[in-house]
Amino acid sequence: MNGDKHIRSDTETRGLAGLEMARVFRSPIVEHLRRNDFRIRSGDTAILLAAEFGFCYGVDRAVEYAFAASHRYAGRRLWITGEIIHNPRVNRHLREMGIGFLPEAGTLEERFRELRAGDVVLIPAFGADAREMAYLHGNGYEIVDTTCGSVLNVWKRVRQYARDGFTSIIHGKYDHEETAATCSQVLAANPDGKYVVVRDMEETGLLADRIAGRGAPDLESRFAKAASAGFDPDRDLGRIGLANQTTMLESESRTIQEVLRAAMAERCGEADLAGHFRAFDTICSATEDRQRAVKHLLERGLDRMVVIGGFNSSNTGHLVEIAESRVPTYHIESVEGIVDRETIRAKPQGGGPVLVRGWLPDGPLTIGITGGASTPDSVVGRVIEKIMELRGMSAPEAAGAA
User: Fold this and answer.
1) 36-55+286-399 shares its CATH topology with 150-283
2) Fewer CB atoms < 10 Å away: N or C end of the chain?
3) What DSSP line would sit under 36-47, residue for residue?
4) pLDDT, the chain, mean
5) If we measure between CA atoms, which residue out of 248, 252, 257 comes closest to residue 290?
6) 340, exposed or middle or buried, with CB in 10 Å at 0-12, 13-18, 19+?
7) The pLDDT of residue 400 is above 50
8) Global pTM?
């Protein structure tokens, strides 16, 4: 049963959810920044907030539906198939509301062992594996599907590729929930459908070399975990269609498209390219907006950049990637990452969180702030307030600063 349709039409329940979200996730200091050109300056300190940050539409909708479900289905057991979004604060709050989190590993029977008749199951913003959805529908559970519309658009593309006999080349992380769900859509549309997930330009280059006949041996081993069963590069790379995890780096996705298009043109010629190569821009607009806002912020003479979001958040990680090549950048999950004026617990690209010394030096300082698409205003606000405190500014002083 489609519980999300019930919630969508229940304006009273959604109104209650909106009020509760505002209470839990709003931040007066963030609201002040929005009203004042996204900046605060006092003494020798300037804090600049990216013009686009935090909850995107898809995340906001997913969290709203979870809050609404807790009201509409009060008295029934609510479960979610995984983290609703990649933010520990939000997922912790859902647990506190009494929503259960199903195991993320195991067979379908093992993962859904706890479900009983009458239970309600929420699907995260990333979506869910097509086999999981079939299982849940087949067993009659009420489903509240919060899958982001941008993700659904990607699924539409790869299903069409599979039906038309094209191998889907997906720019993403094969072990990310969204990309795993996208791969499952290929097989749902065509049991003989093929896909390959490429993470970066290095892997793209290997595929391009094989497509153009330039070698690249043993792709079967390289992509063993990131390709459909029985992947045969010589057979399956003859016709390809491109898509991507919606939270990847926009510029890299576009370059990947150009490289693979050129390789296919080299293989079959421009005249026959349309029969062998397809591509659609499936990067989420909110992801693009947040990446462009960081690039704009970097042009404003920053001394430091703080990026706030879950350590397992793909879109947050790409904001860090953009910033850290230009300015010292610190990826933290929440205000708890700020130990003191000397020390911050931050996650560099490609590693785990570490303690970094000397992150907030004395003297004039301009600090950029942004939050990933799964980061609520309240988490961003607490970080800003902590930095102001460490720089000798109180929240009331900052709120009144021009």
Assistant:
1) yes
2) C
3) TTTEEEETTEEE
4) 93
5) 248
6) exposed
7) no
8) 0.89
- DSSP annotation of 227 reads B
Active site residue 178: yes
The answer to whether the CB of 81 falls within 8 A of the CB of 402 is: no
Report the DSSP beta bridge partners of residue 346: 354
Q: How far apart are CA 339 and CA 11, in angstroms?
A: 43
Q: Is 341 left (phi over 0), alpha (psi -120 to 50) or beta?
A: alpha
Burial 29-60 (b: 16+ CB within 10 A, else e): bbebbeeeebbbebeebbbbbbbbbbbbebbb
| C-alpha–C-alpha distance, residues 90 and 382, integer Å | 15
- According to CATH, the topology of domain 36-55+286-399 is Cobalt-precorrin-4 Transmethylase; domain 1 (3.40.1010)
Write down the architecture of domain 3-8+57-146 according to CATH: 3-Layer(aba) Sandwich (3.40)
DSSP three-state, residue 352: coil
What is the topology classification, in CATH, of domain 150-283?
Answer: Cobalt-precorrin-4 Transmethylase; domain 1 (3.40.1010)
Q: Is the pLDDT of residue 341 over 90?
A: yes
Q: Which amino acid is at 249?
A: L
Q: Which of 83, 132, 142, 178 is catalytic?
A: 178
DSSP type of residue 256: H
Give the pLDDT of residue 13. 86
Query: Binning pLDDT at 50, 70 and 90, where does residue 402 land?
Result: very low
Judged on CB neighbours under 10 Å (0-12, 13-18, 19+), 354 is: exposed
Write down the domain spans for the chain: 3-8+57-146, 36-55+286-399, 150-283
Cα separations in angstroms, 154 against 158, 245, 281, 328, 359: 6, 8, 9, 34, 40
Q: Please tell me the distance from the alpha carbon of residue 140 to that of residue 134, in angstroms, as a whole number.
A: 10
**Calpha distance 248→201 (Å, rounded):** 12
